Amino acid sequence: METGAAHVQLECRLCLATERDGPEGLEARLCFPCNCRAPVHHGCLMQWQRAQEEQFAERHTFDEVQARLNTCEVCGARLLLEETPSRSQPQLGSAVCRAQGGTQKVALRRVPTLSRATRNFSEFSASDGQQLEVLEQDVTGEFFRVRALGAKRYRGEGVTAVAEGWIRHVYLDWQSGVSLPPPRMPPAFLAEGTDRLGADAATAQDSVSQQDET
Ligand SMILES: [Zn+2]
Ligand SMILES: [Zn+2]
Fold first, then answer.
1. Neighbours of 10 (CB within 10 A)
2. Of the four, 6, 42, 71, 209, which is 20 to 30 A from 121 by CA?
3. CA distance 23 to 125
4. From the CA of 41, which ligand is nearest?
5. Any idea of the CA torsion for 145, 89, 180, 147, to the nearest 10 degrees?
6. Are 105 and 119 in contact, with CB atoms under 8 Å apart?
7. Nearest ligand to the C-alpha atom of residue 14
8. Does position 151 have pLDDT exceeding 60, yes or no?
9. Strand, helix or coil for residue 43
10. How far apart are the first and last CA of the chain?
11. Res. 207 pLDDT band, cuts 50 70 90
12. How much is the ipTM here?
């Protein structure tokens, strides 16, 4: 190895090896599919996704399983592999949270799914009137990942310096006159019927009560 060069040997965060056993090519390539600094082999990530699918497919909704497969468990960002489209940037980098009624807080989700099971929520929230940095949009268009400074705990007292998480578009006020294209509804949303799960009804459910589905 050359001396003096900042030569970092990168290891896959899943298999902990540099080289991947098996055929060379895309699967053996180390990639950075999210915001984590540690890379992962393309093949190892796909293997992890298949394992997640097998583990959760029977117990959770299609919408939640897909959201889990495509979200990094560590940094919370969308996982992007080479063949997927580039990270979809919202047109604006910030928006104001609108969460009238109830606690005036919206719990930030760990994964962009409509499931309201407790496991999908972080302990922190965005508050009504709070300015949020908008980081990215999920694959369905329904959710945005946001960064909230001085985020309040969803339950009880206390704040944290910075919290990130996913939030439904209905809670974001872009305040610019630029209207975002209406998001596509995720499959689970359509399956349950748009009458009962209309945007207004879902808004009330989200900000008032979080129920554990399990
Ligand atoms: Zn690996
Ligand atoms: Zn990550």
1. 12
2. 42
3. 45
4. 1
5. 30
6. no
7. 1
8. yes
9. helix
10. 53
11. very low
12. 0.98
